[in-house]
Amino acid sequence: MLKNISRLECQIGEKLYQFYCDVDSPLTDVKEAIFQFQKYVGMIEDQVREMQKQKAEEENKKMEKTENVVNPS
Predict the structure, then answer these.
(1) Is the pTM of this model over 0.90?
(2) How many CA atoms lie within 13 A of 12 on its CB side?
(3) Domain containing 55: what range?
(4) How far apart are CA 68 and CA 54, in angstroms?
């Protein structure tokens, strides 16, 4: 089966980014799809921030334990 599609493409730095959809896709649906992609990326960013925060807290706890062993009060 052959089907026509539309492709939206932009280049950022050296990378190409592409979005494909049916030629007859309503613009409201295209906007909603892009919004859903943004939400997904935002969730990934939130997860990465949370992991970094947890890692920093763990490192701080380890440093506190080390300081308590070296310099007991």
Answers:
(1) no
(2) 2
(3) 26-68
(4) 21
